Every structure is written in C-alpha cells, then in structure tokens.
Amino acid sequence: MREDALATRLVEHFEATVDDPAIRLEEPYDADGREGVVDLFVRTRTPEPVDRVIELKADAAVRRATGANEVLRQYRRMERYFHADERHALRPKLGRDEPGARYLLCFAPTPTCVHHVATNRTLYGSVDPEAHAGDVPAVRTVAFLTGLDGDPADLGLVSVNGEVQFGSEPFKRAVPDDSRLAESLRGVDDGLIEFP
Question: FRET label pair with 63: which of 48, 96, 114, 182, CA 20 to 30 Å apart?
Fold first, then answer.
C-alpha cells in the first residue's frame, strides 16, 4: 500500500464525514527558516477551527528510514514548525472545548509497517498525547489506519501511544477482526506479536 492511496482514503473520509473541510495535500510550511511539507492538512470547524496535520507512512517510507528515530524526527519537526508558520497559525479562543490541533503519524496496516512499529513500540508508545500549538491545546496520535477497504466514513485509527500500548489487550480489542491490520498482525510471526 502506498502513501498516495492512504491520502486518498483520508480525503474521502473527511469529505464524507465533515461539512466543508479545507483539505490540502503536500502542504508546505516555512517557519524560522525551517521548511517542510506535510502529507495532508485538514481544517474543520466544530464550530471553532480544528487542524489535523497528518504524516503518512507506508512500506516504502518505513524501508527507506534509518529507523524509528528518523520517522519521529520528521514528525516532531512537522509538529514544531507547521503552526509556527504564519499561514497556518492557530489563535487561542475563549470557550474552546476541544484541542485546536491534532498531529497524527499514521501507518499503513501492512506487515512491513506492523513489524516496524512492533520493533520500535517503546519509542512510538512514548509519544505523549498532550501537546500545544503555541497557546492552543493539541493532541499527538501515533496510529495504524483501519477501515481502508470499506465505506470512507468507517475509516479509523488504532493508537499505539498514550494509555494504549502496542500489543496490549486494549490495543487488540480495538483492532477490527476482519481488517488489514488484523491480518498483518497475524502475519508477523517472529515472536514480536501474539495476536489471535
């Protein structure tokens, strides 16, 4: 599975589930001379703006990376500088009742990605979900995508950071039985994962 296929499914998901989302692929940012590009940027209104800044990782990206540290370095750079760019700045709002930004690192539900995350579960699991975009509360999520083959509205995430650790019982319960992720978890048979 390629990153462009993941991006397509995410675009379809937001178009199916949110009224009038602002969606941009390969969105550039430049803050303090730190340039970069995020795979997908989605701004929704609930009624306040909520940004989803999404980094996608499929097999090719995982194979090319020197390791989890490189993947996390890219993710942290995105988090640190995306909203520092004036074009993407978020302002504090009185009465905001949910985070204004969600930084997502989403892996394809493939055996290659499952093996990579399983091998580096401590690093990915250590990403603290609580964050800030300047003065605006934010959330960090490291997760596998699920529901890629069905209705775009059913696209979901199975997180591996925060309270739910990779391979834990809550993690296993969150994996849909007939999903690509479940199949990949069963297919990685080198002792890293015990999945029913």
Answer: 182
What's this model's pTM, rounded to 2 decimal places?
A: 0.93
Read off the tokens for 148: 């890629």
- Dump pLDDT digits (tens) for 69-108: 999 999 999 999 999 999 998 887 776 778 999 999 999 9
Half-sphere exposure of 169 (CA within 13 A, CB side): 0
Q: Are 191 and 181 in contact (CB under 8 A)?
A: no
Cα–Cα dist 169/179, whole Å: 17
Distances from the Cα of 168 to the Cα of 4, 16, 121, 181, angstroms: 30, 31, 11, 15
CA distance 123 to 105: 13
pLDDT in tens, 157-177: 999 998 888 988 899 999 998
